[in-house]
Amino acid sequence: MINPFFKNVGPFDIQKLLKNTGIKNTENLKNSKIYNVADLLLATNKDLTFFHSKKYSELASKTKASYCVTLDNLSQFLPDTCKKIIVKNVLLTMAKITKEFYPKSIVDDFDDSAKDISKTSFKKKVKFGKNVLIGKNVKIGKNCLVGHNTIIEKNVVIGSNCSIGSNVIVRNTIIKDNVNILDGCVIGKKGFGFFPNQEKNIRYPHIGIVIINENCEIGCGSTIDRGSLSNTIIGKNTYLDNQVHIAHNNKIGDNCIIAGQVGFAGSSTLGNNVMIGGQAGVSGHLKVGNNVQIGGGSGVINDISDNKKVMGYPAKNLREFIKDNR
Asked: N or C: at which end does the chain have fewer Cβ atoms within 10 angstroms?
């Protein structure tokens, strides 16, 4: 289960699903039930997935999904056990399908179930400031603090020995033990996923969650978006400085140090022990290896292998950067 916080209204017969979303059945698919949508890696034989870039061909060749929305020129990479649904725009089609399964995942309206913490069972378990609101089905461990004007919305899970600062909003998130969330953070909102349209932009549903692992610190004013079809994950003992933005589906490794105003586009993966200087930017769908160091103000637009030091825009080997800027 990717997100226990959104209700899946499936399963759907594949024929009905295609009809509801206006997709032509190009391969005369036999009718069967689809229980969920998932990415190539997480999909089971009860799920439908998508494959939109040759960059993911290795994952596509190993997917266990029963059905895959893809392009005609990519279908060759999929296993015979996966039936192909050929379309012209994979991501737009998946947005329509995902919305069928999770109709409430498009909007991020405020949680109207939240009430003052003094009126909940946490009033004797948690040390809290003024004007703290808690939603339904929230779990908070031992020895936790929650600051003034903070809202912890429904279904959030917080471990033990955590400190949640003032003016923080948390939703669609699991926070493990010994985590510090500093003032002004917004965690678990939907990501910046949509398709431009002259009449009305089309939003992509975000059914993933945010997972913050043990011993992390999230700096003041930072924002971490929940995933679209997978989760946004912050590894153990990773520290974010102030005003860091982590977009949807990013996977940040263990023991990473990320300085202020660094921004990540969606669906990139960082290894362990990565250090990034202030105001650097990391483009989407990239892989940054272990023990990488990225200089401040750099723009990362290509994958970086293990143990590299890079700087500049586009980011390149540190020695080359110094040589070119003497």
From this structure: C
